Structures are given as structure tokens and as C-alpha cells.
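ok trying this again, last paste got cut off
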Amino acid sequence: MSHLDDWQLDALCRGNHAYLFFPPSTFERKDERERREMKAKAICGVCPVRQPCSEHAIQIREPFGIWGGLTEVERRTVPLVS
């Protein structure tokens, strides 16, 4: 991990509840997905590195998961800043 990614060490999504931030490998009903995403976003809401996390995901066009409180779909609506 480069020093530019050091913010990841302070991310609250690390650890036992990391599964909330990415869809399961099996089928997930819409209501299950919405509950999982709501829980993940609540964690992002109090995370000390939310801003660099979302900026990173937008910049690299991360196609999966919740990063900085934004889903894949939500990140696609944010314009890239050069």
C-alpha cells in the first residue's frame, strides 16, 4: 500500500463487517440488498476517511461495492475531476 492509500488503514469498513460493502456471491433479493447497503452507508456516515474513500473509488472508477457511502450506481453519476 502506498502512502497515498494510508487512509485505508483507518477505514471503518475493515474487519468483521466488511461483507456489508460488497454483494454476496449468491442471489440477493432487493430488500436484502437495500438493508445491507443501508447498514454499510451508516458505517460510512461516521467513518473518518469517507471523503478520500469516495474520491478514490470515483477516480479509479471502482465497479463494485460501497465506497465512501456511495454505491456503484451513485458513483457513476459523479463527474470525474482531473
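PB: full thing came through this time. The chain has one domain: 3-76.
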